[in-house]
Automatic annotation (TrEMBL):
Name recorded for this polypeptide: Fe-S oxidoreductase
PANTHER family assigned to the protein according to its UniProt record, in alphabetical order: IRON-SULFUR-BINDING OXIDOREDUCTASE FADF-RELATED (PTHR43255:SF1), IRON-SULFUR-BINDING OXIDOREDUCTASE FADF-RELATED-RELATED (PTHR43255)
One MF term in the entry's GO annotations: oxidoreductase activity
Entry keywords, A to Z: 4Fe-4S, Iron, Iron-sulfur, Membrane, Metal-binding, Oxidoreductase, Transmembrane, Transmembrane helix
Length: 765
């Protein structure tokens, strides 16, 4: 009787579980298919497959969390491995002695099952403990709750998944214990009841031997049924919740990692992706030929590519991106996690209407009752009320849709489709510094920066909606070729007073091919006083090392980085095309730059427009010159105190381009300098706050990012902050001044030059 009841329950649970799981999977597929094409995301298959295996098995994104890395890996591997024990469970509901043919009683398989059952249990207990320890606690002030990376995550979903895993693994172990005792009482199976077949559970099964075969058989039946019903309940719940990324990611992450931007495994950082129109990169020269209904950037959810929509569905809500985000950690409304979840929820709600409306118009009608973004007061109230689904940038998306009348495919087929401001608040969109910390930390390869940039492009190019400060910057770039709006003839003023001549291509040398390097000075290096000191230092060091170089002078114009990262792709392409043409005319092949943003643009983005050059950052070149003995730093005079410095990694040099060692090697080569690292350094370094066009915008919410980072530097006890980007020099200098910190901000080249000058008694500068 017990077996019959258990069998009926198991069959019903399985039918419901499989049917609803298939329904949920189908819903996700249909939702992702709403997106636009994503060319090149499925090939080359071989390289992508190798990267997938390496990333999944290596768990590389967990480098900074070794315990979590090990626990998650064990849970991940135990999921497919122990699936076969679920298959065994169906047989055990009917026959307690059932085992898989061939494999069931094979000792290596039994060892593997027991080992991963115990390790998987330990792993899920550790992961649950981490979540419980770091969860935001009700009653805490909002700033305290925001410090948790799980703030804003849907707690019940995570706890449900963890509970299911724990129960299933406990059932696997319980069955092994019961099987040992049952086999010991069966003459035909007694030879299996040994530590050889039960290496990690025999000690628990031994006390149960002799309990009674009928009771043991019933226990095996019940535990098998429980294991199956719990497993099917998981499938029922996630089938009903296609947006439950914490569960679905174990399937979707495989596809998302395979379809990542870089087939060889690099992060989706460095070059911004071209602006696609009709699946092809935008050609400014053919702008007049675009269809009248063409859109630039992403203004509606269906304008994301299918990979973008897959990104949103894959989010695990782990909050690692939020934990590292400089905007979120300084009180801004931007959280990369909540940004992703808002788009996920909106896509999930809108996709059925988009599919239904596609045959008629390709886009659903916009509701007159479209909700507005949540106000700061509403945000705080929602957070303090402990609403887990809280979205600081969009309010409760699904709730807003319900209020607007979009209750389901059978309801009103009208949803708010303008992503900004209906889903993403403008303050969220423009708070991003594009530092890439979120992308670097994401374990499932979500491309947050690309999505933010696509939204910015639409706001700038289609809606003409952007911060007022950017309007002035755009005008200055267009009219003067630099964001300061200064006359191009002043680009060489930095060289006045140097004890040597700085040759200009076209005036002093005919071609850049006549010198070792074309020195790309950059706008900051030419016009900003603090950056000019770096430019002069690099020029003097190159002259001392007898490295020939020349500059473009007033022929140089902005690379376009501030325009592109602010969403003005057309202005970027105009500036970039001008520079590519100039560089081709002068025969430039080898370029040295002092600005991390210029470095990234020239080396990684200009190839998109046909400009291919060998680009080195000044720290890379100077490091090589020191190692070759062409620059010799000299120790301070006797009695002169040594100096403690800390190094700040520029995001566009470090995270975006993986240049971490050369600046530190240079500092280590300077006698009299002692390097101390900030808690957040290298891959986890905090942004200065200047990227993504933010150097031109005021911070009016929360703490200034530059002040927070300068405070971290001062807390190390260093008297100087060394960096390698003019944006960082400017932002950190201003941050230190605002804090009242007695710390000097210098470029690495300035510190090196001071040491090299100690060996030359001749006055300079």
């Amino acid at each position: 009787m017990l077996q019959t009841i258990s069998l009926v329950v198991v069959v019903l649970a399985t039918v419901a579980g499989v049917a609803l799981f298939a329904r949920g999977a189908s819903s996700i597929v249909r939702q992702v298919r709403v997106g636009r094409p994503a060319p090149g995301r499925l090939s080359p298959a071989g390289r992508r497959a190798r990267t997938l295996v390496r990333e999944v098995l290596g768990h590389g994104h967990f480098r900074q969390r070794p315990a979590v890395r090990a626990a998650h890996w064990l849970v991940m591997v135990s999921f497919p491995l122990l699936f076969l024990t679920l298959v065994t469970g169906y047989g055990q509901v009917v026959d307690p002695a059932f085992a898989l043919p061939l494999l069931g009683h094979l000792p290596p398989w039994e060892w593997l099952v027991e080992a991963f059952a115990w390790l998987g249990l330990a792993g899920i207990v550790l992961l649950t403990g981490v979540r419980l320890r770091r969860r935001p606690r009700a009653g805490e002030p909002l700033p305290e709750r925001r410090r948790s990376r799980f703030f804003g995550s849907t707690r019940w979903q995570a706890y449900f998944v963890e509970a299911v895993i724990a129960v299933v693994v406990v059932c696997v172990l319980a069955l092994r214990v019961l099987e040992y005792a049952y086999y010991a009482g069966e003459p035909d199976l007694a030879q299996l009841a040994t530590p050889l077949h039960f290496p990690l559970t025999a000690w628990l099964g031994e006390p149960l031997v002799g309990t009674g075969q009928a009771a043991l058989a019933d226990a095996i039946t019940v535990v098998s049924a429980v294991k199956i019903v719990v497993s099917m309940s998981w499938m029922v719940v996630i089938g009903l919740q296609p947006s439950m990324g914490v569960a679905w990611h174990r399937f979707l992450a495989v596809v998302n990692v395979y379809a990542r931007r870089e087939p060889d495994g690099g992060p989706a950082l460095g070059p911004a992706q071209p602006l696609l129109v009709g699946g092809a990169p935008l050609d400014v020269a053919a702008l007049d030929d675009l269809p009248e209904d063409a859109t630039l950037g992403v203004g509606h959810v269906e304008e994301f590519t299918w990979k973008g929509l897959l990104d949103f569905s894959t989010c695990t809500e782990c909050g690692r991106c939020q934990d590292q985000c400089p905007a979120w950690n300084t009180g801004k409304p931007l959280s990369p996690k909540l940004f992703t979840l808002a788009l996920r929820d909106h896509a999930s709600a809108a996709a059925p209407f988009l599919r239904a409306a596609a045959p008629a118009s390709g886009r659903p009608a916009t509701s007159d009752a479209a909700p507005t973004a949540a106000s700061p007061e509403e945000i705080g109230a929602a957070a303090l009320a402990g609403r887990d689904g809280f979205r600081p940038h969009s309010g409760d998306v699904l709730g807003a849709l319900s209020e607007a009348g979009a209750t389901g495919p059978g309801g009103v087929s009208a949803v708010p489709s303008d992503l900004v401001p209906d889903v993403i608040d403008p303050d969220v969109l423009w708070a991003c510094t594009t530092c890439g910390a979120c992308v670097h930390q994401c374990p499932v390869d979500i491309e947050h920066v690309d999505h933010i940039l696509d939204l910015r492009r639409h706001e700038v190019l289609m809606a003409s909606a952007f911060p007022a400060e950017l309007g002035g910057m755009f005008r200055k770039l267009e009219s003067k070729g630099n964001p300061w709006g200064l006359a191009p003839r002043k680009r060489l003023e930095w060289a006045k007073g140097l004890p040597f001549d700085v040759p200009v291509v076209g005036a002093d040398v005919e071609s850049a091919a006549e010198v070792d390097y074309l020195f790309w000075v950059g706008c900051a290096g030419a016009f900003e006083d603090r950056a000019r000191r770096t430019t002069r230092a690099v020029a003097e060091l190159l002259h001392t090392a007898e490295v020939s170089f020349a500059v473009l002078g007033d022929s140089e114009t902005c690379t376009g980085d501030p325009a592109r990262r602010s969403g003005n792709e057309l202005l970027f392409q105009m500036l970039a095309a001008q520079n590519v043409e100039t560089l081709a005319e002068v025969g430039a092949r080898r370029i040295v730059v002092t600005c991390a943003h210029c470095f990234n643009t020239l080396a990684r983005e200009y190839p998109q427009l046909g400009g291919h050059y060998e680009v080195v950052h000044h720290t890379q070149l100077l490091d090589r010159l020191v190692r070759e003995g062409r620059l010799t730093p000299v120790a301070p005079a006797a009695g002169e105190a040594s100096r403690t410095v800390t190094y700040h990694d520029p995001c566009y040099l470090g995270r975006h381009n993986q240049v971490y060692a050369p600046p530190r090697e240079l500092l280590g080569a300077v006698p009299g300098l002692s390097l101390t690292e900030m808690p957040r350094s290298g891959e986890t370094a905090m942004c200065c706050g200047g990227g993504g066009g933010r150097v031109w915008m005021e911070e009016t919410v929360g703490t200034r990012i530059s002040s927070a980072r300068a405070g971290e530097a001062a807390a190390t006890g260093a008297t100087a902050v060394a960096t390698a980007c003019p944006f960082c020099t400017t932002m950190l200098s201003d941050g230190a001044a605002a804090n009242g910190d007695d710390v000097e901000v210098l470029d690495v080249a300035q510190l090196l030059l001071a040491a090299v000058r100690r060996g030359d008694p001749a006055p300079a500068d």
